[in-house]
Amino acid sequence: MNQNLQSWLGRQIEDLKAQNLHKVPRILESPAGGRVRMNGKEVVNLSSNNYLGLANHPKVRQAALDAIERWGVGAGAVRWIGGTMSVHDELEQRLAKFKKVEAVLVFTSGFTANSGCIPAVLTDKDVVISDELNHASIIDGVRLSPARYKKSEGFVYGHKDMGHLEEILARTQDFEKRMIITDGVFSMDGDIAPLPRIVELAEKYDAFVMVDDAHASGVLGKNGAGTASHFDLYGRVDIQLGTLSKALGVVGGYIAGSALLKDWLINRGRPYLFSTAHPPMVAAALIAALDVMENDSEPMRRLWENADWWKRSLQEAGFDTMGSETPITPVFVGDEGAAQEMERRLWDEGVYALSIAYPTVARGKARIRTMPSAGHSREDLEFALGAFRRVRDAMATGAR
After folding, report:
1. Does 20 have pLDDT greater than 90?
2. Chain segment 70-97, per-residue pLDDT in tens
3. Interval 338-362: pLDDT, tens
4. Which domains does the chain have, with CATH numbers?
5. Over the stretch 91-131, which tens digit does the pLDDT of each residue have?
6. Catalytic residue among 187, 229, 324, 373
7. Has 376 been annotated as catalytic?
8. DSSP string over 189-252
9. Rounded Cα distance, 377 and 391, in Å
10. Alpha carbon 375 to its chain's center
11. Which member of 246, 262, 311, 365 is catalytic?
């Protein structure tokens, strides 16, 4: 091994540790759920995106097993070369109907959907106008494009600041295309984008809108169809990104929009062009997950019942949930070291709730990010709330 490289890596890791920013993943030893076994310990899991509990749903599991028997375990090729099976095609047709759009193209992840779509629809004659709190996958997708986008050049608007957005739109009329891009639900704060006003401004200034609905999929809108459904903006959002890895419980991402957009991405979306297709059991499991979402309202009802109770209970106990409007419920801490210490103490109490710090959020805005789900019982959440109170009180008094 090259010692120069190893030495550099070692210094970087020590620097992360000194800043209380170093991460070590815990190992899940059971199916995803409200209570899990991690690192040999049973804990209440408040750091999962498995909003509806579908990752271990019996119908979803059975669909995957049946698909293995029929299709085998791999597609064997990139989608356009020969890896598109009829089950992949069926999934895309189901998703298009679910989202009420002309067409959907599935990618291997939400991250690759962003990095495949954004550069494909932009040129060096275009500009991206982006919310300052957009997800890292949006930022990376934008950076891969030749369009103008930098905050230093005035193309990033203050979080949900519609006056700022309009000011940028008004002074970027000389660009060939203007893309406004936003999260539907912001993944670290849990608040919802003001999509109706964004769409109004886009239509006024001849811009087009892309919404990353990763954390709105399965959470907002009819049967969990996302923010366009939530605000009844069908046909007025040009590009929607959805995830298949969170509420649907499996893996993948997709771009929903026009048939022309899908055709273009098949030809120019690089992650689609150069990645092997999902294993067929993934597509089959996702079709089954869609069936559950569309025909059984109980998981979404439980999700919101738990989320509302959890948020209200934290606030009544004196915790700052940072204006969250969705199941994503941050508990503000501020200091990075204190957030890491709170995470460690919660773990000792039997609660897995991850601390989030820079660079995921701004310095000085560390928080414990909690995610109640349909898979939690009320007893799970009451247990977790008690742990939060005990840890908060112990840290306030300096007790070990």
Report:
1. no
2. 999 999 999 999 999 999 999 999 999 9
3. 999 999 999 999 999 999 988 888 8
4. 20-51+297-397 (3.90.1150.10), 58-295 (3.40.640.10)
5. 999 999 999 999 999 999 999 999 999 999 999 999 999 99
6. 187
7. no
8. T--B--HHHHHHHHHHTT-EEEEE-TTTTTTSSGGG--HHHHTT-TTT-SEEEEESSSTTSS--
9. 21
10. 18
11. 246
Express each pLDDT in 180-205 by its tens digit: 999 999 999 999 999 999 999 999 99
Residue listed under structure tokens 């997800």: 135
| Nearest by Cα to 130 from 168, 180, 88 | 180
Catalytic-labelled residue, pool 88, 99, 160, 215:
215
Write down the pTM of the prediction.
0.94
Distances (CA, A) of 329 to 187, 291, 379: 10, 28, 18
Stated length of the chain: 400
- The verdict on whether 48 is a catalytic residue reads no
Catalytic residue flag (residue 246): yes
In the chain, beta strands by DSSP E: 35-38, 41-45, 103-107, 127-131, 156-157, 178-183, 208-212, 239-243, 253-257, 329-334, 351-352, 355-356, 366-370
